[in-house]
Amino acid sequence: MIVRLWSLASRWTAVVPVVAVVMLIFTWGRELPGALVALVTVLLAGAVLSAVHHAEVVAHRVGEPFGSLVLAIAVTIIEVALIVTLMLDGGDKSATLARDTVFAAVMITCNGVVGFSLLVASLRHKTAVFNPEGTGAALATVATLASLSLVLPTFTTSKPGPEFSPAQLTFAAISSLVLYGLFVTTQTVRHRDYFLPITRQGEVIRADDHAEAPSTRTAVASLALLAIALVGVVGLAKGVSPTIESGVIAAGMPPAVVGVIIALLVLLPETIAAVRAARRDRVQTSLNLALGSAMASIGLTIPAVALASLWLSGPLVLGLGPLHMVLLALTIVVSSLTVVPGRATPLQGGVHMVLFAAYLELAVNP
Fold it and tell me: Which of 63, 120, 275, 337 gives a 20 to 30 Å CA spacing to 109?
């Protein structure tokens, strides 16, 4: 009996995602009592850790930059599905849901994940080194996508309010897909070396020698379990959102804080994976995860909501307000200055963390 329990415990990364999805099935759309919320939270944390484990298994098998791309796209696809589902449910909150979620993802990844990864790597290894060519290309794509999708709607005049007209929304959706497709091709085919980790002498690290790559069967199993774990993460995060919303309202904070908390939960697997890569002095992998997630969030969300708008009866507000535009502009400028040298000290990591803290503070006290 003890041996069987130990065997089960050793395979927790396979068991927890399945249990999380089963819990999701039984709790979806229902009001959860306090005890069940606590259990769901524990399963949510377990699913996050399991997702990180399976993502690293897949990444080790396929190598970089494919590994970070798998996790970024998997998380974003499920996140987009959740956004579209909530938007189709209707209600006044759905008008700004896509904008708030995408902007939260950009600020969390470009400041929170990037800043923390740079800070961890530079404190542990004195400086954080990465490839400025690949990171600069990723940052340029994120900046363009964010500006086209979140800034321009505030200034267009074809439709009143910070909204796109149908023709403009179609252009934004097609542009997002084209840019994202071009970036993925560049990252994985044309200039793959730009997105691989480098040594402190600037030499590309094509493979990790510290462990033998898992078999194809193991990688496929981990890929399936990764998808299951991410479904559990996003679904359970939505399940506990009413409790989070009640706590936010009781604390007197704006309702938009709920979206920030949910985004933090959904992006937690990528955050943990990025920080672990930074500890191993693989900062390029951390930046691939962070900027790739921001890019995928915009590049997949905007086309999805553009398609969903055919069935939506209410407005679709995408334009940011002045406060958030200032934060976005400052993030782009600071990120550009961070990327250019190809190496960073704790100062650069601290600057990004302060920007992330400012975003959280202004979300609570706008």
Answer: 63
